[in-house]
Amino acid sequence: QVQLVESGGGLVQPGGSLRLSCAASGTISSVNIMGWYRQVPGMQRDLVATITNGGGTNYAAAVEGRFTISRDNAKNTVYLQMNSLKPEDTAVYYCNYRDRVTTWGQGTQVTVSA
């Protein structure tokens, strides 16, 4: 079983930056994908970015060029550096871990507002 603990959300002005972190613990597979998804009330949860344990990345078109996902395999931690934030980036951001089973974090609120 895997547990995920997220941190780093908050309130930021448009154009600002935030960095999210997600630490995984428990039974971590040597082959896995970690990532970030986001959800606004009443809408589905959407992909933001994923990264494999080998470093392969995938981004949603809406964030490519502004967000960067990275990971530290020694710490079982994934990061999301978010730059040039826009009001439409406001959402609850969820960390995701996937091997044979999918695990979700508890979510962290990101609010982009003046």
Short description:
This protein has strands spanning 2-7, 10-12, 18-26, 33-39, 46-52, 57-59, 67-72, 77-82, 91-98, 102-104, 108-112. The protein is mostly beta strands and 114 residues long.
Note down, in words, how this protein is organized.
- The chain is an all-beta fold and 114 residues long.
- It has no helices and 11 strands.
- The protein is globular, with a radius of gyration of 13 Å.
Determine the number of helices (DSSP H or I, runs of at least 4 residues). Answer: 0
Shape: globular
The rounded Rg comes to 13 Å
- Taking pLDDT < 50 over at least 5 consecutive residues as the criterion, the unreliable ranges are none
Count of distinct strands = 11
Proportion in helices = under 10%
| Class derived from helix and strand content | mainly beta
Biggest pleated sheet: 7 strands, mixed
The share of residues in extended strands comes to over 45%
Q: Span from first to last CA?
A: 40 Å
> How much is the average pLDDT?
96
Order of helices and strands: EEEEEEEEEEE
Task: Describe how the helices and strands are arranged.
Elements lengths: L1 E6 L2 E3 L5 E9 L6 E7 L6 E7 L4 E3 L7 E6 L4 E6 L8 E8 L3 E3 L3 E5 L2
Descriptive tags:
single chain, 114 residues, mainly beta, 7-stranded mixed sheet, 4-stranded antiparallel sheet, 0% helix, globular
